[in-house]
Task: inverse folding
């Protein structure tokens, strides 16, 4: 498989409601889509959602970087999925951003599978555990009176809600969601790095007792001391999602 063309699109879709969380408010989606074409005409697509507060990458910067570096991919041959994996690891070692690699790697894998008519699960020896994928609902900040109809309208089998720094607000949100969904519905919390270490320990302890089963980004990425101190404690008590 030889790469012949690369096109990049900045995808922004307006949201019906503002999506508020600890580190920002969002009124539209923000992702970068890569369309990659081979010399034989196979087309693959890849997408990434660059976030400055996660990987430090911005959409516009990511698009400029792809356009600048595309010459390194144009004309390059990828004869196996191992070639794509090697390119990914090499790019990481060279300091390229995770979102950039994500978009291009997905496009390469998609194009390669179409070019050689391969099922990636079969190639990797991965057994398909299910025939359908269940999506999880994600609930932003906001008044429950406005958010309740949103939760009711979607039949998600699990939910994640954006957690506040206020433990009383989080406790009430857990109670509200469990009252509506039932206590058997898996519930997760995402603090978006908005807690201090002691605050996170208190919040997680309370939420675990109420039946929450997973916590995402409790501490800011710059809080290395808190992360190291908490890892040995929290790994024994809760699972952290990505």
Result:
């Amino acid at each position: 498989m030889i790469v012949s063309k690369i096109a990049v699109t900045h995808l922004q879709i307006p949201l019906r409601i503002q999506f508020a969380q600890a580190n920002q408010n969002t009124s539209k989606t923000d992702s970068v889509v890569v369309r990659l074409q081979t010399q034989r005409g196979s087309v693959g697509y890849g997408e990434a959602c660059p976030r400055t507060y996660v990987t430090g990458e911005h959409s516009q910067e990511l698009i400029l970087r792809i356009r600048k570096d595309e010459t390194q991919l144009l004309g390059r041959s990828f004869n196996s999925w191992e070639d794509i994996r090697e390119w990914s690891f090499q790019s990481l070692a060279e300091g390229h951003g995770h979102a950039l690699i994500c978009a291009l790697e997905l496009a390469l894998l998609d194009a390669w599978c179409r070019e050689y008519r391969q099922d990636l699960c079969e190639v990797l020896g991965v057994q398909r555990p299910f025939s359908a994928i269940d999506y999880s609902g994600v609930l932003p900040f906001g008044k429950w009176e406005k958010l309740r109809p949103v939760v009711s309208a979607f039949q998600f089998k699990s939910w994640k809600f954006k957690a506040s720094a206020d433990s009383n607000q989080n406790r009430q949100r857990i109670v509200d969601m469990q009252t509506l969904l039932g206590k058997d519905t898996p519930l997760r919390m995402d603090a978006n790095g908005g807690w201090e270490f002691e605050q996170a320990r208190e919040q997680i302890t309370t939420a675990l007792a109420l039946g929450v089963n997973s916590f995402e980004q409790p501490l800011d990425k710059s809080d290395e001391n808190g992360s190291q101190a908490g890892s040995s404690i929290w790994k024994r008590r809760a699972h952290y999602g990505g």
Observations:
- The longest strand covers residues 3-11.
- The chain has two domains: 3-123, 137-234.
- Strands lie at 3-11, 14-21, 24-28, 31-38, 43-48, 137-139, 159-162, 187-190, 214-216.
- The CA atoms of residues 54 and 221 lie 8 Å apart.
